[in-house]
Amino acid sequence: MRAIHIRSLDGPSAAELVEIDEPAAAEDSVVVDVHAAGVAFPDALQSRGLYQYKPELPYVPGAEIAGVVRSAPEGAHVRPGDRVAGLTMLSGAMAEVVALQAERVFALPDAVSFEAGAGLLFNDLTVHFALRTRGRLREGETVLVHGAAGGIGTSTLRLASAFGAARTIAVVSTDAKAEVARAAGASDVVLADGFKDAVKDLTGGRGVDIVLDPVGGDRFTDSLRSLAPGGRLLVVGFTGGEIPTVKVNRLLLNNVDAVGVGWGAWTMTHPGYLAEQWAELAPLLASGAVRPPEPDVFPVERAGEAIASLEDRTARGKVVVTLR
Ligand SMILES: NC(=O)c1ccc[n+]([C@@H]2O[C@H](COP(=O)([O-])OP(=O)(O)OC[C@H]3O[C@@H](n4cnc5c(N)ncnc54)[C@H](OP(=O)(O)O)[C@@H]3O)[C@@H](O)[C@H]2O)c1
């Protein structure tokens, strides 16, 4: 089969299209003919050996796929011929065939294309976990999201109102990214530079109930300052490069929480959680209450460029590579 290999930790340009053997499938795994695979920020970090999970070289990058089931164990919830999305979780996705644990395979609603399906699970399930489980989002609250034109950002903008948010404020670095955030459903968009004052104006001085932060770095303290009393800052990632530190008196003074969000680790310690998440998300996608992502699509031959677009900050929304 055709697959992308990373043979050296020299960054996304090391991505190479190769012919390798199809995966040896365990009896209890679901084998999927892959149509498209999602690209996420960890793919860029991994290609330089900078992510906490370090696969052995050479490895196939990518955490998520969409495609058609080729074979499934007796009694599984999916059957040969079903359209599905699936999680390889952190490597193995950019290949024409994958073998997945059954609990990481999800029947794709008809309304969701393979390209959209390949860009769905990793971010939407993280954002679901962040807003619902960790962030305790309540009806009528306001959600601010950093990196709003990125994968996690657009996912937050697509999902927040379906989970009860009355308003979303998108923080982006450029006017072009502001357009991406608006298209994903942002109520308001502000530039990262000076976002704290802009948020103060937009909320009449009250602040927001939730900040979902995949960026970190030097905006962290201003994010805490932008929270309303009882607000929650959800720590999702550090695309800005720096892991911020926090003076905890700020939490006490304004009665706010800084909340860790580690979705992958949670799924490992909570069997059945992925299925619970999908049971909430799939009907929203099927009914149109949540729109599927509209990813930027690259052919697999350009997988290196696709991964690089996250690293060099040119990506608009979710990025996906097609394999069929
Ligand atoms: N905690 C979890 O369970 C979990 C799960 C999935 C992903 N994540 C993490 O979430 C983060 C976002 O992932 P993603 O796939 O959404 O990434 P993405 O699509 O590349 O979006 C990240 C955004 O970060 C902003 N950014 C600010 N400084 C940046 C820099 N120096 N380099 C690159 N981007 C920068 C960019 O927006 P502007 O240019 O507008 O600032 C960009 O749109 C990653 O750290 C990822 O590891 C965490």
UniProtKB/TrEMBL annotation:
Pfam families the record matches: ADH_N, ADH_zinc_N
Q: Which Gene3D superfamilies match?
A: Medium-chain alcohol dehydrogenases, catalytic domain (3.90.180.10), NAD(P)-binding Rossmann-like Domain (3.40.50.720)
Q: Which residues form the Enoyl reductase (ER) domain?
A: 7-321
Q: Which CDD domains match?
A: QOR1
Q: Which InterPro entries match?
A: ADH-like_C (IPR013149), ADH-like_N (IPR013154), ER (IPR020843), GroES-like_sf (IPR011032), NAD(P)-bd_dom_sf (IPR036291), Zn-ADH-like_protein (IPR051397)
Q: Which GO terms describe its molecular function?
A: oxidoreductase activity
UniProt xrefs under PANTHER family: QUINONE OXIDOREDUCTASE-LIKE PROTEIN 2, SHORT-CHAIN DEHYDROGENASE/REDUCTASE
What's the protein name?
Answer: NADPH:quinone oxidoreductase
Q: Which organism is it from?
A: Mycolicibacterium obuense
Give the classification, highest ranks.
Answer: Bacteria, Bacillati, Actinomycetota, Actinomycetes, Mycobacteriales
